[in-house]
Amino acid sequence: MYKDIISYKLAENISEEHLLNVAREVLVNWMSRQPGFKKWEIHRNSDGGYTDIVYWESDGDAKNAQADMVNIPNAADWYSCYEEGSISSMNLNHVATFE
Fold this sequence. Notes:
Blueprint: E1 2-8, H1 16-29, E2 37-44, E3 50-56, H2 59-67, H3 75-79, E4 88-93
Antiparallel strand pairs: 1-3, 1-4, 2-3
């Protein structure tokens, strides 16, 4: 399992409700159709920012989806949710689970 971790702040005048509505559209119209997509979680951080965790079957699936981002319908709506310069990301490859 491969995870994309994306942290950001919302742009001025963008509500959490608006972010979630736009995210649902992206999920339905693009992300859920990407090969290897598993799930997308959006978390509110204690500092008021947000962190998304997107789960993929493999790093190759994530990279293919990243290359296909030019085909996201209404991508401008999605990108306008983020404060310019606030986005940071990292990637994780699952090694082990202990329960």
